Amino acid sequence: MDTTTSGPGDEGPADTPGGVEKMPTIRDVAKLAGVATSTVSRALSNPARVNRYTRERIVEAAAQLNYVPSSQAQGLSNGRTNAVAVLVPDITNPFYFDIIRGAQHQLKAAGYTQVLVDTEESSEMELEALHRMRSADGFILAASRLTDAQLAEVSKTQPLVTINRASTPSVVIDTPSAIVQALEHLASLGHRRVCYVSGPATSWSSQKRWEVLDEESSLRGMETCRIGPYAPKTTSGAAAADAATRTGATACIVFNDLLAIGMLQRLRERGIRVPEDVSIVGCDDIFGADFCNPPLTTIASPIEQAGRVAVTMLLSQLNPVPGATIRQRAVMPTHLTIRASTGPAPDNVHG
Amino acid sequence: MDTTTSGPGDEGPADTPGGVEKMPTIRDVAKLAGVATSTVSRALSNPARVNRYTRERIVEAAAQLNYVPSSQAQGLSNGRTNAVAVLVPDITNPFYFDIIRGAQHQLKAAGYTQVLVDTEESSEMELEALHRMRSADGFILAASRLTDAQLAEVSKTQPLVTINRASTPSVVIDTPSAIVQALEHLASLGHRRVCYVSGPATSWSSQKRWEVLDEESSLRGMETCRIGPYAPKTTSGAAAADAATRTGATACIVFNDLLAIGMLQRLRERGIRVPEDVSIVGCDDIFGADFCNPPLTTIASPIEQAGRVAVTMLLSQLNPVPGATIRQRAVMPTHLTIRASTGPAPDNVHG
DNA sequence: CAATTTTTGGCAACAGCTTGCCACCTTCTC
DNA sequence: GAGAAGGTGGCAAGCTGTTGCCAAAAATTG
């Protein structure tokens, strides 16, 4: 906008070669506006506290100097950093991407900055980050690998909200209810024996999914079996696919899409047709689920929204509104998205 | 580890309900170790400066109190935040994913934290972030939407490194050389007329790719045409596909995989076979390029590595080693990965 | 017009850490 | 044994904002 610096009154050593120009401080603004620093501080953060005309003068001076308050210093004196850390087990996984995206979006809207941390599927790293990171006002734990006890412990001293974890506060994606839908879908296609391909042993959601699946399928007179655990990566899909074919199941419900897509690739390699020979249901509806081959029937979750809601919950915890109560739990709805990886059960039953 | 707090000498208001316990400061450590705060500071950051035994006492005291220095305060006094901001035009895009991942990895290794900013394809937001973010020591600009002039201006006052941009310092992915490979590949398959499907108008790399493509193809006696610009999203693929079919080209080289995958979907819908009727070459080899239908022939780039190198360059700029010179430019090699989306040109030429 | 209340803005003490400078204490040297 | 040299550690002044408290100024009231 204003390139005032190019004026003739070239005051100070402008353009320090290779150096960064010194940023203006609140004191510079105060001097220019002819007031005390405290007045500047108040004018900017608590406008009602200072006379209108003085304030205008200050604002103008600040604009002229291109003044931006140092969040570091602000944080120092008022104890908050205006940053929140988002911990994910594996940035590689597109599932977390959507969470990151949702969180980022909401945080930005609230004037917070997002600090991203990859805990590499390790509970130690997670714990470490939780303790070390004094530079965050709060934490979002996406698919924490911590035990319930650790989680409870940490949440005593750190504001946090989890995603897909039975703790408080937390936002959980209601996959179980969609598992039922998936089961109905498979049942109506004539499948009687379905295999659950499970995710990491420490994954709370993988556990939950299996429980619901097992229970609901017996209600419907269907048989189940379980294989795994597998790492939630496409590369684990090959092993999962091979194991799955040996279970005699005509359909698989897979912990997540990544794994499911990996299985799809392997099955194709082995000449096993999907869905003619076996049906596959994924979970999460991640990027790619719609254009893989065949397109994946999957349990769609509003992942990005989950990220957003998590942030909202965290922020309401950080800045409590006197009247309102803090929401402790949000459940995100899910639904089955049927694509081409599921089809009628092969009728070799009477063969 | 140590649950010392449960001891009988319950000093202080432990377990403030809902509150966060006060973190120990350098003074607490100093008191416990019986030294001055300055000594503690030095013991931790400049070990050589303090007697070994004193240091051990201090370290132990710090451990006992579970002391972690406040990076805020550190930053305030020494002027650095130990954070770097990574600006991407669109977190949605898997391409940036890999960059983020690479950067995150390298930053963590160096003890820095990563602040992620989505500039939403807007140069204003980019500029704004560059000016506002006093909380970062430096910036990584992935696919900046700024003009060369703006970039030059900003880099005078902020340490930064760009990715895929002709500025310094910068890491560029050598797509042009792989464009040649792609062209050879297509030529050997009998294609004579290829269409370039271009990305955003402000994208430097899209521009570069076209220039190389145009030049090299005429050297080989091939015809080219160009359509676009298109937003680099799968959803833009439909329009791109439709436009491409009208150019009479038998092969398309597409700005990036996202767009290419979108085209694949659209072509399939319209019953146009890939690669029988038209060949498609993407760019970036993002997540999904290997399992879409058909798997995409694409120009593979070491994107994650680019993120890492960018960080390395930035850090060497932030912490110059007296002897070494700072690398101003890194070129990442690329290669063509041939999958199933390219095949022999349809021989309707003499039809 | 004096007394009281409300505004407004300044002083100075923090917040937690770093660092230049100086003083003290050992060692060492002649 | 006195003086020099070097190693340690403390003092205090920063770094940039925020905020409780108070005084001066302005507005209100009787």
Features:
351 residues, alpha/beta, Rossmann fold, homodimer, DNA-binding, 434 Repressor (Amino-terminal Domain), 3 domains, six-stranded parallel β-sheet, six-stranded mixed β-sheet, 12 strands
* Oligomerization status of the protein chains: homodimer
Q: How many domains make up the 3D coordinates of chain A?
A: 3
- The second-level CATH architecture of the largest domain in chain A is 3-Layer(aba) Sandwich
Low-confidence stretches of chain A: 1-19
Sum this structure up briefly.
Two copies of one chain form a homodimer. With 351 residues, chain A is α/β, with parallel strands linked by helices.
Structural summary, described in words:
The structure is a homodimer of 351-residue chains. The first copy, chain A, has 351 residues and is α/β, with parallel strands linked by helices. Chain A has helices at 26-33, 37-45, 52-65, 71-78, 94-109, 123-132, 148-157, 175-188, 204-219, 237-245, 257-269, 303-318; strands spanning 83-88, 113-118, 138-142, 160-163, 170-173, 193-197, 223-227, 251-254, 279-284, 297-300, 329-332, 335-337. Helices cover 41% and strands 16% of the residues of chain A. Chain A has a six-stranded parallel sheet, sandwiched between helices. Chain A has a six-stranded mixed sheet with strand order 7-6-8-9-10-12, with helices on both faces. At the A-B interface, α4, α5, β2 and α11 of A face α4, α5, β2 and α11 of B. Chain B binds a DNA duplex (30 and 30 nucleotides) through residues 25-27, 35-42, 45-46, 49-51, 54, 69-70, 72-79.
Secondary structure: elements and pairs:
2 copies of one chain form a homodimer.
Chain A: H1 26-33, H2 37-45, H3 52-65, H4 71-78, E1 83-88, H5 94-109, E2 113-118, H6 123-132, E3 138-142, H7 148-157, E4 160-163, E5 170-173, H8 175-188, E6 193-197, H9 204-219, E7 223-227, H10 237-245, E8 251-254, H11 257-269, E9 279-284, E10 297-300, H12 303-318, E11 329-332, E12 335-337
Parallel strand pairs in A: 1-2, 1-3, 3-4, 4-5, 5-11, 6-7, 6-8, 8-9, 9-10
Antiparallel strand pairs in A: 10-12
The structure holds a DNA duplex (30 and 30 nucleotides).
